Each structure stands twice: as structure tokens, then as C-alpha cells.
Amino acid sequence: MNQIKISAKTVDEAIRNALDELGETLDNVTIDIVEEGTKGLFGLGGKEAVVIVTAKEKEESQIQLAKSFVDGLIDKMGLICETEVSDDEGFIKIIITGSDVGGIIGRRGETLDAVQYLTNLYVNKGKHGETYKRVLIDSENYRAKREATLVRLANSMAAKALKNHRDMMLEPMNPYERRIIHSTLQSNSKIITRSVGEDPNRKIIISPK
Fold it and tell me: Which of 45, 74, 129, 164 has its Cβ near the most Cβ atoms within 10 Å?
């Protein structure tokens, strides 16, 4: 907490000097007037005004919270990675780079999903509505590459289901990946998709109509 005790000929002057010293604005400080100050007779024997000005502690932004949380996780995992955080159209986007990105991505992106899930919980604790900010975490464009792979898989398995006239069951996927499969085949009038089982082993079945 930044605090300064300062004196000047008047209270206003003391406050202005304190604000300059702290690099703060009036809205971001609290002011305690210790001495009002007096002019004295014929300009002699007067007392200077004394104030104590304290800068308010700034609430850490959600972007800063997200970065510090992910940096902390990376450090605890013993990985050599860097993070770049930005506000991307209302989302908090975190890009992770470095020599150990494989460790942060994990098998089929499971570690990346876990870090993203935990960061969302941490950043949005107690937040609702407009104050809720979704966190998206990516590394080496993994999510775009994974989405492209899933789209190809969905179309390929749908073609097999139609050709062989039988259900095709996919490997277990997380909710994000299942949404991609469902969305990809939603416009295919010859195919029905459904999810079966319980997480983390929930799977999609692609069936011909």
C-alpha cells in the first residue's frame, strides 16, 4: 500500500503534491487531514497543512488473474513455457509457447483442457452475467488443428456408417470435442449422432437414418 504524509501552505496544495508523488488520481486515494494549517498574523507564525494520502489497492483485472494463475501452474509443473494474454472479443485468450508445450498440451489436449477449466473457475469465481469472462487457452494452434482433425473424422465415420449401413462408435471425447462432431454432422440429413456413457468415457455414435 502506497502512502505519503506531506505538508504545504494549504490542504489543497498538499493533496496535489501527494497525488503527483504517488502518481495517482483523486478517485484512487483516501485522504486524512492531519492539520488544516493556519496563516498566522501578518504572515508570521502560521502552520502548514499536513495530510496523509493513501493509494487504494487496485483490484487485479481478470486478464492479470488469468496470466498469473496459468504462469503459476506452468511453474509448478516444472515446464519451460511463456504465456501471452489478450482480450479477444470479450474472451480472455492465453497462448502458451516454449520448449515444453508438449507437456502443457498433454495427450489429445487433456492437460490443456484441464488448465483451461481450472483457469476459468479461478478467474470467474463469484462472477456472473457480464462480469463472467470465458478463458480460452491454446498452444501451437493445437485447438484449430484438433478441430480440423475431428471434422475430417466425423465426415469419414459418417461415410462409413452410410456405406456399411451400421452404427459407428467413436473413441471417448470431452464435451468440447463432442460438440464439434455433432455440429459437423448436424446438416447431414442421412446421419443421426448421439452421445452415450458417462464422462470421461462418454462417446458419440454415428448412425445412418
Answer: 74
